[in-house]
């Protein structure tokens, strides 16, 4: 009796050095060889055919958790061939689109949307970056991931740098660099799955010339003493002229902004649970994460502690420290816009005269702390900076040391 034929997929080694890895279970050192995945099936005429689906390095470590990405391509290709209604070549070409730039970008963006690594605004920025890059690849005739070269990434950078706004002004260099960072991150995901051999946007180290020098940063702006006095002296009657509702909350937000140095997102997402032991604990909750993922503790003075205590007593069922009149959390955009209107109506422009935002409260808080001789390492911890260099930017606002202060130094002998 003739043996029943079953279509299948299989791997065959190809020439190549592969890469070496350590088996996480046994500690044994192994070398992953190049592998080509093939299909063995009968075509529409009933004849057996052999088609190559993919060739490259086999992702060995993920195979301990299941099929590697290349084997999965072979599985999907075989399923597509068995259910094919058209020609085998068209079916295999359709299955190979899993390696296309557009399809991989869509899968990457889908994971970004589902994940909680980025806030809503950052997710929009990532989507804009990736969609712009996919459109660029389409214009350059790039269809598959392995067709992208370093020169293409540099051309993409140059196109971004040459863009102009509606008023004719160029985009800031950090905007271009953000696009490049998002594309680099996506290509590293493709590298992790070994859909490409190397990342064409990978860093070349300290002298990497892919990114543009950031020479467009705004000078740090702080509120003047007179402006702070105006803001802190606003009562509910004065705020009613600018806000039809939530005017009391605006006044209390000003106090907390100025006396804690919280970011806008940290203030709008601040819950009563985060306020304990006379400190504010900046920590992830409800899908929200602090910037850089840094947890920290911010001390409260008596004014802030009393303000939050009163709000807790008045709104015992509230979750967030600051909520709208309808009992919902404030949106960052709405708070930013409301404060901008307030600053404009009061003529508050900061010490540089270039305008201010809620973030200037943070700059003013840091400058005030450093002026009052709080150690810069402590201020850095309170602000949640990634490194001390970020806090060092505030030093040019600090009062200059005078010759008389040399008397404070106690020398030996």
Keyphrases for this structure?
16 helices; 3-stranded antiparallel beta sheet; elongated; 413 residues; 6 strands; 43% helix; alpha+beta
Short account of what is shown:
The chain has 413 residues and is of the alpha+beta class. It contains 16 helices and 6 strands. Residues 59-67 have low confidence and may be disordered.
Describe this structure in words.
This protein is of the alpha+beta class and 413 residues long. Helix content is 43%, strand content 12%. Strand 2 and strand 3 (48-57) form a beta hairpin. Helix 2 (69-82) packs antiparallel against helix 3. The relative contact order is 0.06.
- The overall average pLDDT, rounded, is 80
* Span of the ends, CA to CA: 107 Å
Strands, total number: 6
Characterize the overall form. Answer: elongated
Helix/strand order, N-terminal first: EEEHHHHHHHHHHHEEEHHHHH
- With strands numbered from the N-terminus, the spatial order across the biggest sheet is 1-2-3
- What is the makeup of the main sheet? 3 strands, antiparallel
Portion in helices: 40-55%
Q: What's the Cα radius of gyration?
A: 29 Å
Number of helix segments? Answer: 16
User: Low-confidence parts lasting 5 or more residues at pLDDT below 50?
Assistant: 59-67
What structural class do helix, strand and pairing data support? alpha+beta
């Amino acid at each position: 009796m003739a043996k029943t034929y079953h279509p299948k997929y299989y791997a065959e080694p190809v020439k190549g050095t592969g890469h070496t890895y350590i088996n996480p279970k046994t500690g044994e050192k192994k070398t992953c060889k190049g592998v080509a995945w093939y299909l063995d099936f009968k075509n529409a005429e009933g004849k057996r055919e052999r088609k190559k689906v993919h060739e490259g390095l086999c992702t060995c470590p993920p195979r301990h958790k299941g099929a590697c990405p290349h084997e999965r391509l072979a599985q999907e290709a075989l399923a597509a061939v068995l259910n094919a209604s058209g020609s085998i070549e068209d079916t295999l070409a359709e299955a190979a689109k899993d390696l296309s730039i557009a399809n991989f970008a869509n899968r990457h963006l889908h994971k970004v949307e589902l994940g909680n690594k980025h806030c809503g605004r950052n997710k929009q920025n990532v989507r804009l970056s990736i969609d712009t890059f996919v459109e660029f690849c389409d214009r350059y005739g790039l269809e598959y991931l392995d067709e992208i070269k370093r020169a293409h990434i540099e051309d993409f950078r140059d196109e971004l740098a040459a863009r102009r706004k509606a008023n004719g002004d160029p985009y800031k260099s950090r905007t271009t660099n953000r696009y490049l960072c998002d594309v680099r991150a996506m290509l590293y995901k493709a590298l992790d799955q070994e859909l490409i051999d190397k990342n064409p946007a990978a860093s070349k180290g300290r002298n990497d010339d892919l990114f543009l020098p950031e020479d467009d940063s705004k000078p740090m702006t702080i509120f003047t003493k007179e402006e702070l006095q105006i803001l802190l002296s606003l009562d509910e009657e004065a705020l009613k002229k600018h806000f039809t509702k939530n005017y009391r909350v605006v006044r209390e937000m000003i106090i907390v902004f100025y006396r804690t140095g919280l970011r806008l997102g940290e203030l709008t997402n601040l819950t009563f649970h985060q306020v304990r032991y006379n400190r504010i604990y900046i920590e992830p909750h409800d899908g929200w994460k602090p910037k850089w993922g840094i947890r920290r503790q911010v001390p409260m003075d008596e004014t802030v502690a009393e303000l939050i205590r009163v709000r807790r007593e008045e709104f015992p069922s509230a979750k967030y420290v600051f909520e709208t009149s309808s009992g919902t959390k404030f949106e960052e955009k709405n708070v930013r816009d409301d404060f901008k209107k307030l600053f404009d109506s009061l003529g508050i422009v900061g010490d540089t005269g270039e305008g201010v935002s809620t973030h200037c409260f943070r700059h003013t808080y840091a400058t005030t702390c450093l002026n009052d001789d709080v150690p810069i390492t402590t201020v850095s911890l309170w602000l949640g900076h990634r490194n001390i260099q970020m806090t060092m930017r505030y030093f040019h606002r600090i009062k200059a040391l005078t010759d008389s202060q040399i008397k404070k130094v106690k020398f030996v002998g």
